[in-house]
Amino acid sequence: MSALSQLYLPGAIAVWCALAFALAALWGYVDLARGDESARGFARRAYAFFTLAVLASAFVLLVALARRDFRIDYVFQYSGLDLPWHYQLAAFWAGQKGSFLIWLFWGALIGVPLTRSIGRHEGPVMGIYVLAQLGLLFILVRENPFLMLDHAPADGQGLNPLLQDDWMVIHPPIMFIGYALSAVPFSFAMAALWKKDASDWAARAFPWALAGFLVLGTAILLGGYWAYATLGWGGYWGWDPVENASLIPWLFGTALVHGLYLERTRSRYRRANMVLAVLVFLSVLYGTFLTRSGVLADFSVHSFVDLGISGWLIGLMAFFGGLAALLLATRLRTVETRPNEDPALSRGTFLVLATIAILSCATVVTIGTSAPILTRFMENPGQVGPEFYNRVNLPIALLVAFLLAFVPFMTWRGEESARAVLRKALPGLAAGFLATCVGLGLGVTNPLHAIFLFLAVSALATNLQRVVRLARDRKLASAGGYLAHVGVGIILVGFMASSAYDESVKVTLEQGKPVSLGSHSLTFERFLPRDAHDKERAEVAVTRPDGKVWLAYPKIFVNDRTQQLMVHPAIRSGPLDDLYLSPLEYSPGSPGGFARLQLAKNESREIGDATVRFLGFNLQAEGNALVNMSAGKPVAIGAVLEVTRAGRTERVEPVYRFEQSGRTEFPPLSLPGGGRVAVGAINATAGAVELLFDGLGSTAAVPARLSLDVTRKPLVSLVWWGMYVIFAGGTLALVARARQLRKLDDLPPAGRAAV
Amino acid sequence: MSKKAWTVLGVVLLIAFAGFAFAAFRTSLTPYVSYREAQGGTRTVQVAGALEKGSTSYDESASALRFTLRDPQTGDTLRVRYEGVKPANFEDAISIVAIGRWSPGPAEFAAGKLLVKCPSKYQGTEVKSYS
Fold first, then answer.
1. ipTM
2. B48 contacts chain A (CB < 8 A)
3. Could A77 and B84 be called an inter-chain contact, meaning their C-beta atoms sit closer than 8 Å?
């Protein structure tokens, strides 16, 4: 803990108040959970004050950023005078401390609607939930963002140029909403075990789990798009540990959503779902540990270093993991659940298989990401590359696509025979078959990919068929799941096409010379300087086979502050493919530059086909130079040269003008026989002159060159569209489940247990 | 098939998948090795080091970036060839991790991927004060 004088008090006091109120709320809610009804008012008030205190501390940091108060270390480190307002906002979550604050900010806010949606479970659920917030608060007190410097710097260090992007303004805060939401199903599960009252936990946790799934998914999509469109990493997903750290909780969350759906409809898998809810929350903590503790410092493109909070994060994981393990071990047996009476060939089985597939994927990604830790105790710690994830996830994706293709026609009780299901799925399967034929025609070669394409398109079609049917019957509200699965089908096709069938080639373009690449032709037209609208960029004309020209502007520039070389790709997105131009190297060439020659008095040198002798300075070139100089007027000095060329000797006198203000002028003078000469500088002490020659012995012009990585990525747009459709489906489901929640609260108490 | 048979089949499949995943893990693991181990090795490994100032060159004809890494501890150097987009903060990296394998022909380390650690203000001052 830092001394008082080192803290910015308005912020620090707000954080401490938040801690005090959170402790009070915890006390109140535990009392309430134990049956002391009178504690409700106290607990709610304490929670309200906790929320206000968290809002206040966030507000203080925001104001400090807006005022550019560089006395505060965090503001100094992540912002600067040159940042526009929205990057000033992004600086809030650019660093570790601010990220924890924004996480806590959402956590506190989410608690407000949460209190209202939990009815009689308020005590235990909020008790656990406040405990989770306390964990973050402890880190925040330890990693206080309101540390002050002992001086007030004039300017901050600025924001990392890689983060100066519009996507960076919205991607992290959305990610942290998702992280904050993960504590909600966890709290429901723990509370249900604690109070041995699990009858309606699934109904209540379901909308929250869906919301977490949606929000975290959105954040992951934005992150992928950021990597693709701005960072120029070439792809939307690189299996980097930091990307995986957010994918793992999302996968567990996806499994939880399916498990809760099963529980709501079949009253089964209640115990498994509680374990899943715990896994979602713990995987968020684990992901935070992986990315913030420095264990992966040598394994990730993201440079997070150990800031001394690894111990805290391990402590948090141990505490919540221990709490969950204790409750699960002692109480899980008391949770009532129904035995599985459905036949093997039923919708339930398919759902369970799909959930297992998603869990396998989550496990595989967790193990892959943890490779540096797992192998730490071997002789050489190592990590696994993208090919591991791609290989292992392929069979999982095949299984998922297969299940998705048939699940819309499966019934719970398995009344339909396998034949009947197959018959109903026939139109969808036909669509899949057609798509596969098209794919084979377009160059799909790998038989596994053909099967994959067939299953993915079939899944898309059968689910779409179901959505259309439900919409016709005016039951669109219950079509959320199917719609999401349409999206999964779309995205699977996009994944396969864009990752396995992208074509990449590296070219070096000489300015003005067209180069043909397949059916396209590329010409590097010019390099544009920085202007009011944009950074330095190259203009590349891409001529398509139909003759249409697209002007691409891949950017390549140096960040003013850090002098880092930055590149931004230029992307032409189309429905069928994206053309992705990523700059590799730019060499400006030289426009037949000047030749320089330094001559002392009476010295003569050869340059090109001429001999030049410097006879001396002429101080009377434009009035007396010495008089003008002492009068503060512009001074002109001539350099008297004797140029011998092709047997003829002529005298020329270029002048060098300068003013007191430092302004200089050296107009070039034409030489007999071509070329120009100017006085570049005067060396008064040595009595020498530096001459600049143009078109005479000068270096030959070197054209500017631009090296590009040109990639054609087929069907990338399907990845984005698939995600949009999944989100649309998820939102539909969320609305439907939230509605059921309202009904749940309207029911008389006796009715609740029957849900 | 009875329910039991289905369960057994499922468990067998899961075990098979676990075995497959484990094998894939083993083969795609890229361990950290010293330059000496990397030279002459045949598997994909990763090496780390500091960028030797002024050693960077871009070969336009081969579309490859070449540079030298120096191990700060042993002082060994390794010539690296990388075909890909030059990372944004390459030049002022404090440490570069190259993942790839030794190519004996040109006697250089052919990197398929680079991880660049920059002394960015991202966490820069904190690096200073904590380590």
1. 0.79
2. yes
3. no
